[in-house]
Task: structure prediction
Amino acid sequence: MVELDPTIPPRDPRLQQAVGTLLRVGVLLAAAVVLTGGIAYLARHGAAVPDYHVFRGQPATLRSLTGIVRSAFALDERGIIQLGLLLLVATPIARVAIAGVAFAFERDRTYVLVALLVLALLLKSLLG
Amino acid sequence: MNTLAFSGIVAAASFCAGFLGSLTGLGGGVVIVPLLTLVFGADIRYAIGASLVSIIATSSGAAAAYVKEGFTNLRIGMLLEIATTVGALVGATLVAVIPANVIAVIFGLVLIQSAYLASRHRPDHLTANMAPDPLAARLRLDSTFPTEGGEMRYRVRRVPGGFALMWLAGVLSGLLGIGSGAVKVLAMDQVMLMPFKVSTATSNFMIGVTAAASAGIYLRRGYVVPDLAMPVMLGVLAGSMVGARLLFRIPTRQLRILFALVIVVLALEMIYHGIAGEL
Result:
């Protein structure tokens, strides 16, 4: 069906498979952590009345990278959920990094630069 | 209602949103914010925060399936992510200065536009035999995608126009906590003349990165409530994975129109409550 055309490069199935696997594993891992924290949270606070109507912002421990990791390892239920959400946010970031590495293997300098630029923007958002 | 019951209902509603969102290509996030604010009475910033993290899950869950099918164009996705992440950072910064009611009205208007875009059926442009676009050729954006008759090639055009529209998609994503899938698909299949399935798959693939760009800022500002985001994220993820599995097996035209109608109703509610100052 497809005619050989030197101006159109073939799709790279290996890269696509690797990226697909990374996305799946990252998301499932994040979901497992969120679910674990969620079950623990509901077991302890399930009977309380929820209130999300008034905006208060979250405490500093659930806002910074180190604060989240610390409260998760202190087995704070909300901290564990937040760690899972952090893993979720990290998944697309790791995926950009891996794509960058794959472009480097293909000696595709333009797209290595593109991936690095996107990576820098994402880290800027997460780390401030 | 206690937290356990509340979380269960939110998770069930989020499952439906994720399922319909991935099946129709609109993304679950588009109905999460109206659901959480109008039905469950959450503050709009909390709702946007929960929606953003769930979008990362939807996008990555569905994208994993799409990438395997071979529709995603990784080069185009990566290139246009420069535009969407810059836009997302702008949008996420704007949330702090724009009043909640104004955000609600903008949200409603964007939803109506998304529903309109999704309800139209557009045939693919035939670009296989066009001369290569110089910029697209230099960036090696032309590629192939699988069809029933084998691999079909396509060429990409008007890259700067697509790039500009992608920036806007990023701003809307960061401001409203949606994936902006409709605008992303528009940029690719209407401006850059890419095949619809390639546009949808690549858009889905990009949505996670765009949302991650805003989610970082939301997290640091304290807009992400773990116990509210938890049932939303898990529900949307499960729904989107089921939806992605069925995507190429069931006809989605009627479903798209139905979902578009639901979105319009939610949009009008958002605009009404925004103007009435009730959010």
